[in-house]
Amino acid sequence: MKIANTEKGRVTIVSQRVLAIVANLFDDPVIQIRYNAYTCMINLAQFVYGINAIIDADILRVLVEKLVYEREEIILILILKLMNILLEGDLATSLLLNTLVLTRLNMHLTSNNWEIRKMSAENLGSISYNVMGKRATIEAESIPPLCEMLTDEVFEVRASAVRALASLAQLKEGKIQIYDLDKLNQIIELLYDLDEQTRLNTVQLITACAEYPPSREKFKQCVSKLKEMA
Question: What gap in Å lies between CA 180 and CA 177, rounded to an integer?
């Protein structure tokens, strides 16, 4: 775990094929060992060299499987964090879309653990960064559960849900779904959220949704608030 914090250590881990050994520890019965293994990967993934090496080692597929089989919440949070970092890799989204990742992330959006809810929404937002990811996420019916999270009691969860929805609303199908779910009033209320990041994300969401004429008409009632925030 500590070796992955240094450049020499990272090179050693990759060049000597230690990644496979570390990945095997994901199945260790001892929680602390699994924790250390995922933390090692996260440390390695702080650098482009590490991200590419982890992706090349086919570890994304393993992470998707662990979204189902890992029962310890503290480890599941690490899995979601690692996946989100790896999504910065060029091939990550296309590789993940060939798995059941969207179904499994949707499942975790309703977790009792707020960090799991937050990181699941973050991953959906990252996957939907490009058009291919947006379409797949919309088809996976991620918008309804994300919309339910607009009123989550934890502001970090709200901010992540709004960010993901703002990305999905860039496509016409996303705008229409959000409108049909009758969530525009809740979106407007988020302009007054106590959390600044949630408010900023909400402005982006409104901007995207307002391209759909029925939503644009509704959002006219918050024009003064938007001007105040500008």
Answer: 5
User: Amino acid identity of 34?
Assistant: R
Q: Are 202 and 172 in contact (CB under 8 A)?
A: no
- Tens digits of per-residue pLDDT, 93-131? 999 999 999 999 999 999 999 999 999 999 999 999 999
The CA distances from residue 36 to 2, 30, 40, 178, in Å, are 10, 10, 6, 40
- Tokens standing for residue 46: 């702080």
**203-227 tens-digit pLDDT:** 999 999 999 999 999 999 999 888 8
∠ Cα 194 197 104 (to 5°): 110
Same domain, yes or no: 128 and 174:
yes
Number of compact structural domains in the chain: 2
CB 127 within 8 A of CB 101: yes
Contact 147, 165 (CB under 8 A): yes
Torsion-angle region of 141 (φ positive above 0: left; ψ -120 to 50: alpha; else: beta): left
- Residue 184 is encoded by which pair of tokens? 């525009």
Q: Residues 138, 230: one domain?
A: yes
Neighbours of 220 (CB within 10 A): 9
Residues 1 and 111 in one domain: no
Are 16 and 78 within one domain?
Answer: yes
